Amino acid sequence: MADSIPKTTLAPGGRPGFRPAAPHPCEEERLNSLHSLHVLDSDHEKRYDDLTRLVADIFDVPICLVSLVDEDRQWFKAHCGLDARQTGRDLAFCAHALHEERFLVINDARQDERFFDNALVTGPPHVCFYAGAVLRDSSGLPLGTLCLIDHKPRQLDTAQLERLERCALLVENELIQRDALLAERARATLQANIDPITGYSLRRRYLQRMTAWLQKRASQGALQVILVKLQNAERLRKQQGVDFYEGVLQSLSHQLNENFDDEGLLKGRVSHDTLMILLPRDQALHGMRWHRFVEQPWLLHLSANTRPDLLIGAGTFISDDMSGAELVDVVEEELDCASEWAPKDKSVQFADLTDNLNLRLEMNNRFAQALRDNELCIHLQPIVSAGRRSLSGQEVLLRWQDKNRWITPHQMLRIARHAGLDEELDIWVLRRSCALLSHWVSTRAEGTTVLPLSLNVTASRLVGAEYMDVLRRVLRLYRLKGDCLRLDISGVESFIATPEPLVSAMKSLANDGISFCVDRFGPEHDSLRLLSMLPIASVKLHPRWISLLQTDTRQGRLLKAWTAALHALDISAIAVGIEHSRHRQAMVDLGFDQLQGYAFGEPMAPDEDYGKWKARVESSLEPHADKSADT
To answer: What region holds the EAL domain (predicted)?
Structure first.
């Protein structure tokens, strides 16, 4: 009978309900207990699957789940009548059940103010009735539920609820007894803040030890940091299983230990996929020894699909007065950025972080003063029409010169974010750009139209009411209309599941005449559905899409399909990162409408006179492009 239960799938998105569950009062202890069972992301087990089928038959419901509530998701150890293996925690009924003593019963979710607008109610699997019996560990902490789901309203009497509770006790016993010896050992090591896989300190313990470690070596001069990041960790864990993933981490730690066996070193697993070592500079690793990570048999015997992709970063720095937590945050940020530029050898990227680290540590304290003293400036980079090579727009780029060196925009943004000044920086750029536009508009020759300026802003910043209010006030202050600005929105992918706040904010500003462009679209996060909902005029495809043309023969067909899809939505396609003018015709053939990159002009400080500025830019387009082609 159970085999005849129809299966449904989850909706790809939708707006979550108005009231996601609050964290449990003992959330940290509850999560530690759940993780110590080593059950999350484990393979199917017949005894759990048989149990959910039996419970579904007993209560005559289409869906029965063993649901475990993790930090940001609910994961199904067993699922009868539902294909999905997990959902977001903000949508989870079971997250609410954690706060109940025994049960959470929702007779009709469509009438419940917590759930009536939940995507799991309004869309697949169309939850109407829900009954969840709380699953607890041996100490009484809630881990999840054994839950029943129906597509129509239901009620359970007292006898049925007691029967459901007895079924839940069977699941509890299975969970608590699951590999009891391993669970006990993992629980003990977690209490000691030691990672049972690598033997390294976990993040909290690592930060605690780092403070004393840095103080002890403050007089020893420069230190070195080494990081090893498993870039495809999530894919390996999902495709190859938890045991394989943990085996790779264990092999990585063994390789590091062979090279670094001094007890005075500080080793930590600072995140699920990153190992970190701090050591005095005189013990630093030099030369070709890094290639041991590439040449080891544990890497070479693996196929391309199962081989770990490693990002290894190393840098020498002076810690100064930065705390351990601040130092780890800075180092992790620089390592993530290195994935964009570090050279790759086989499956390993090597990045020398020394210059970037020292710049960050030095500039952190200088940035706030530089912003207050207007040491920063704006440059403009031309955007050209793909077919005619004429100026069609200009993007505002941030520049900062300190001690005869230019700080890159990405470095500035990271420094500002670390200092908590990223919002203040956005407003500074907005005011400086509007001041320039106001001057151009008031002094331009009669009949001259000033091209709008493109400003970069994150989607999360845009949905904040404060930024919208500031934007409107600045426009009024400089007596400008909205059509003088185009906002290049980055980070829209984070709104795929809940696009309504972003759509509302953009439509509100569009009523003021402001236009929009989606910046750095794809390739990891691309959604035509989301683009079709946004009031945008153009899309800048991610530079990585263009770079892949050199190595993937299929990339051209993919780009042509994307530009055609954008045109079907009446959206202009912009290719960015174009370094050579000889690529212009290829971009035209692929369907791009506008181009941007060093092949068509470097960012330059704007002139006071708009006519002279525009003439200077347009006259430089062709010669500059020819020079780029020669290069």
So the answer is: 360-617
